[in-house]
Amino acid sequence: MSSYRLRPFSHWLLALFLTFTAVGQLAAQDAASVSKEGVTPGAAPAGAAAAAAGTAAPAGDAAAIAAGDALFKGNCAQCHAVNDVVVGPALAGIDKRRPMPWIIKWVKNSSKVVASGDEYAVKIFNEYQKQQMPSFALSDAEITSIVAYVKSAEGAPVAAKDPAGTAVDTSEGKGVSDAAGAGKYMNAVLIVLVVVLIVLVVTLVIIANIMKDVLRGRKDLDGRDVEILEQKTDWAAILKSGWLRGVVGVLFVLVILYESIQGLMAVGLSQGYQPAQPIAFSHKLHAGEHQINCAYCHTSVYKSKSANIPSANICMNCHSQIKTTSPEIKKIYRAIQRQQPIQWVRIHNLPDLAYFNHSQHTQVGGIQCQTCHGPIEKMDVVYQYSALTMGWCINCHRETPLNTKGNGYYDNLVKLHNDANAGAPFTVSSNGGTECSKCHY
């Protein structure tokens, strides 16, 4: 009898495992490819506003509506919604209730309009508990674009909420829910595949044991077959062998060496640092669910070296009317009464030897907050997402292309760069972004 009949089934098990693993990876990749790029927090899909209104925006108004959308989210969305009352009234139909010159005056200085005795202004002021609307340094064109956005979004369905308070999409567009459903479906498929693989392994082990029992009862086996059939693993000999001890020793030394190097490399790094704050402020609630623009609280992020920590009066713009009895909000009241700043704990710290300018990155470079701070709109408690090391910054400068279109300053530099680098992207590094004096001077 040939000894091949007695071979172990390990190669069959390995083949089955590799097959199911490959199938699972392909399935996961297909599910992930539904939406690889994601959605910018607070951004609406192209044409969503016009579609929600039931009409297509004229081609000439598309730019104004897009600009108005950004301005609305950055300046108005903290107190107003288009189709719902928040801190202030719903803005749907504002162009029908008031003429545009009145709206412009109101946005620029509402207190002046109220003081003038305007009947409608006084009515609104009294109706909303005499809450003073802040003045906005916006141009007439910018205010007009906000009104154009409001008109385009009138009648859009308001997101419903389930009993747990989670927003539920009531529109007919089901891209997000379909993607989530596809993800759950693929998870179910992977679970089924794993169960099937386990069943196959158990079945093969049972068959192997049955075959051994059958073969032990046969008398026509030669010596080689009997030797293979009765062979057993001598674990004691293996554990006492010199080569195993050598391998274990080498692995132990390598692990200790690796952990030591990693520990030394991590000296001074604070990635993952997540301190407790004096007030339980949730970015997930404010920036995520309510889509409050970062610049509303961090007012200097687009125009200064530092992204300032908001003062208590910015919190009071909303919380003089909202959740006034919350224990956390009462901490803000106490700070105001005592005329003391809130002692927020700084999370992102760069050494004094490194220079960093927020406005240079956000305003000029167009870098999104999430690029460095991670998914801030999903954090209940903020933590340091990125390493913020010199190597991390330099890699970003090497990989990030500069937007040089329409800026004559770069024309000759781009030409010289393309001639010398065969059309490679003109990155921050190409413009001297990796020179020591850019960050250390």
UniProtKB/TrEMBL annotation:
<dbReference type="GO" id="GO:0020037">
    <property type="term" value="F:heme binding"/>
</dbReference>
<dbReference type="InterPro" id="IPR036280">
    <property type="entry name" value="Multihaem_cyt_sf"/>
</dbReference>
<dbReference type="InterPro" id="IPR036909">
    <property type="entry name" value="Cyt_c-like_dom_sf"/>
</dbReference>
<dbReference type="GO" id="GO:0009055">
    <property type="term" value="F:electron transfer activity"/>
</dbReference>
<dbReference type="InterPro" id="IPR029467">
    <property type="entry name" value="Cyt_c7-like"/>
</dbReference>
<dbReference type="Pfam" id="PF00034">
    <property type="entry name" value="Cytochrom_C"/>
</dbReference>
<protein>
    <submittedName>
        <fullName>C-type cytochrome</fullName>
    </submittedName>
</protein>
<dbReference type="Pfam" id="PF14522">
    <property type="entry name" value="Cytochrome_C7"/>
</dbReference>
<dbReference type="InterPro" id="IPR009056">
    <property type="entry name" value="Cyt_c-like_dom"/>
</dbReference>
